[in-house]
Amino acid sequence: MNDALQDLRVIRENNLRESTKVVDRWITSIQPKLHRLGQEKWIVLEQVLIAALDVHDLETAQICLNHLRKRFPESIRVKRLHGMLLEASNQFEEARSLYKEIIDAESTDIISRKRLIITFKSQGLYNQAIEELNKYLKLFMADVEAWSELSDLYLAQGNFKHAAFCVEEMILANPHNPLLHERLAEIKYSEGGTENLELARAYFAHACRLNPTNVRALYGLLLVASNLSGKLSEKTLATLTEENNSSAVQQQYSLPQSAKQASNNFDSKRENHQLIVYAVEKLRIIFGNAGLAAPIAIVNNCSIKGRTLSSGKTRQQKGDMESGCLPEAFERLSVTSEKNQH
């Protein structure tokens, strides 16, 4: 029995998920000698109960719960374990009633509130899950995982506007995480419309700025810039690369409120082309470093290597792209994204 107890201690202390092993040790070694465990018996019973639920051994879970309820009849922790057993038995209404009883007695019980939300989600009752999750976030606004879950629920319903708001709250908590900027950009891109595509471009750009090797963000930047400027031909891309930048008027980029303002504030097509060139070159470098062949569309339609540039300034721009530096338009996009966060 000592070896079995030691195995359970190691699993418990290292937060390992080895439920089958835990239940096996319980049945073969610990259960027949449970009365000899002393005070460690209660934590072992809880560990075995949760492991039994994980492997859907409801009989073992019920045995452990009976021991715990007999010793701690009014314990909120034991009641919560009872609720989990009811969930595993598909008795969701009874589980919800029990969780609500716990919440009424202890309104700050985070775990019980989350278990209540899970009962709704398990049955596909997304509206009720969203309602309870909003109540939870009014009390615990700093819970980033809850904002992420709420965003997923809104996306499951196709509610992009509210999903984007949830991701914005996550960005406030962790503004230097490129995955969050990428996620918000994807939501805005999926929502569609010129204004949302402009926002998606800004957030994809900022995600690439935070992590220049983020392939998903680079592809997103390539897609959204292509949608905003139209499909590029090889001739157009070559002309853009070889053109003397001194003939182009540099203008400060700002996120427009409408497509009309966008056309008045800056040369949108040119800046989109510059971002496409940057994204394509970065993707080619990443694929090359990984020993993989770049997608045919990038090789055939967006190749700019081997071109002779007509001015020193343009050569410098190409060198920046190949070395991984951000083009000027790209910098303006990402900086604007930062300002909008504040």
TrEMBL record:
It is a peripheral membrane protein. TPR repeats lie at residues 144-177. PROSITE patterns: TPR. One of its GO terms (cellular component) is EMC complex. The keyword Endoplasmic reticulum applies. Residues 79-187 form the EMC2 TPR-like domain. It comes from the Eukaryota. The keyword Repeat applies. Gene3D superfamilies: Tetratricopeptide repeat domain (1.25.40.10). InterPro entries: EMC2-like, TPR-like_helical_dom_sf, TPR_EMC2, TPR_rpt. It is found in: Endoplasmic reticulum membrane. Keywords: Endoplasmic reticulum, Membrane, Repeat, TPR repeat. Pfam families: TPR_EMC2. Component of the ER membrane protein complex (EMC). Belongs to the EMC2 family. Part of the endoplasmic reticulum membrane protein complex (EMC) that enables the energy-independent insertion into endoplasmic reticulum membranes of newly synthesized membrane proteins. This is ER membrane protein complex subunit 2. It comes from Hymenolepis diminuta.
